[in-house]
């Protein structure tokens, strides 16, 4: 079966290459891209940046690869209507599944409104961090495989009438379902639990103040909130079978409770499902040909952090993104400092608070972990920031994040020495404390790095090659050194 899938992907890819290119001026386009990638490394795991922020089409195993074929259609209709559809298939080796439907979606848009259905690599929600250089968002990012969903969105900022282009907004609302039932059932070891048929919800609203034609400065602010809910809790038995532990609420009320977080019927949990979110702020300055961006993502896992009651500045990500004037050396530099260590403190409950109900102690937020939906993951990869390694790294078959209390420093550098050559460098240093409930025996540290160059020859008509070196050192994920090479071809059919 595996060889059949590879042959199928190769056949599709060669078919795209054999289709002639048309140059007529039409209001529709049909584009393709084929891509193959492989990595070899030594160590228990592949270097982190070989795995992280690749939309789940990657592996933490020391040797893996894929061949991928994409097709996308866009058409502009009358009265500002637009349609878009795409299919993206991959055959893999040494990954979580041998055949991957990475993307399969259809969009219909009118003016600034879009209805999107299916799985899609959705970029820039909500702060539009530099995807090539940033370590990623704390809530949703490029780390895990896309989640199929129904999604209504305003993807780009829209000016609010009567504000003279000084105030604009964007946002989205989405509902979907995770697709990793088979992987979780296989990965989970006896006496551990996993969620089955887990549902997904996400929403965001962002505002931007500023008119760069009048003043070279902008301020962005807003909120993203997301949840995993519903489904069933299963327990893996010693004989390999699974036992139903609990059917979680799945009715229409649960969809409303995902949108407006409400108390769970299980009183152990604050709200129904696993809710995470962040407040996001960005100050953008455009002096001459520069762009300087300072941003803050304040993460929350419950109401106390959402409304800034505890540790207002202790947990989250602070970043600085500098875009340089055009030159042959450096185009972008990013620095990010992140902390998830505080989590409102270690105390969850005590007798004093129980004796006086008017007092509440909120702490031990246990980021990304949850008793109902298990954890904030899809196909083993964390849906949020990859510097908190997901369950795919757990050797005991648990779906929990083993270390969600971290502090990190991250640097990303990119440049374009010529029109044919570009490079990027990622450097990350992370300190791990484990969790409040299960702390590590001692402080663990991890250094992860990526050094990548991409060559796109002018004569090649859509061909490009990327070669990267990854070097990891530390006592949390261990030491690893490896190389990865990616070859791609893109072009236009219509």
Specify the number of helices: 6
The proportion of strand residues reads: over 45%
Taken from the alpha-carbon principal axes, the silhouette is: globular
Our Rg estimate from Cα atoms comes to 23 Å
Q: Which CATH top level class fits?
A: Mainly Beta
The amount of helix comes to: under 10%
The CATH superfamily bears the name: Capsule assembly protein Wzi
CATH fold-level name: Porin
CATH structural architecture? Beta Barrel
Structural class: mainly beta
User: Unreliable stretches, pLDDT < 50, 5 or more residues?
Assistant: 15-25, 265-269, 350-359
Mean pLDDT: 89
Q: Describe the largest sheet.
A: 18 strands, antiparallel, barrel
Number of strands: 25
C-alpha end-to-end distance: 33 Å
When the domains are counted, the total is 1
Task: Summarize the topology.
Elements: H1 2-18, E1 28-42, H2 48-51, E2 63-76, E3 81-93, E4 99-110, E5 113-119, E6 149-159, E7 167-177, H3 181-187, E8 193-196, E9 199-209, E10 217-229, E11 232-236, E12 242-247, H4 252-259, E13 274-285, E14 291-300, H5 303-306, E15 316-323, E16 332-339, H6 351-355, E17 369-370, E18 374-375, E19 377-378, E20 381-382, E21 406-415, E22 421-434, E23 439-455, E24 463-474, E25 480-492
Antiparallel strand pairs: 1-2, 1-25, 2-3, 3-4, 4-5, 5-6, 6-7, 7-9, 8-11, 9-10, 10-13, 11-12, 13-14, 14-15, 15-16, 16-21, 17-18, 19-20, 21-22, 22-23, 23-24, 24-25
